[in-house]
Amino acid sequence: RKDCVIEFLNRLKLSIFETTAEDHDTQMAYVMGLTHMIAKVFKKMELPDIFMETKTFALLQKAVSYVIDDSDELFYAIQRDNPFVDTTKEKFFAAVKQLEEQLHQK
C-alpha cells in the first residue's frame, strides 16, 4: 500500500520524504511555525502600500501573501500543537531582541 501511495505522489511530481513524525514536526516548526509567525507580524504592522521595492522585499511579500489570510485557528494550531514550535519561537524572539539591542548600540 505504501508503494502505491509513493508511486501516485511521484506521478504528481511531488517531493517525497520518508521521515519520522518527530523529524517532520521539528522541520515544520521552522517551515510552518516561522512562516505563519512572520506573516502574522506583517499583518499586525499594517504595512502601507509599497510601490518602490527590492526583489528581496517583493519575494518576502509574496511568501507572506500565501499565508497572511489563513485562519486564526490554523495559526494557533501550528503555534500551539506542535511541541517543537516553542524552541523555534524562543530562537526567533531571542534573535530579534539581540538585533534590536545591537541597533541601539552606538
Automatic annotation (TrEMBL):
<dbReference type="InterPro" id="IPR008927">
    <property type="entry name" value="6-PGluconate_DH-like_C_sf"/>
</dbReference>
<feature type="domain" description="TYRAAT2-like C-terminal">
    <location>
        <begin position="42"/>
        <end position="106"/>
    </location>
</feature>
<dbReference type="InterPro" id="IPR059064">
    <property type="entry name" value="TYRAAT2_C"/>
</dbReference>
<protein>
    <submittedName>
        <fullName>Prephenate dehydrogenase/arogenate dehydrogenase family protein</fullName>
    </submittedName>
</protein>
<dbReference type="Pfam" id="PF26213">
    <property type="entry name" value="TYRAAT1_C"/>
</dbReference>
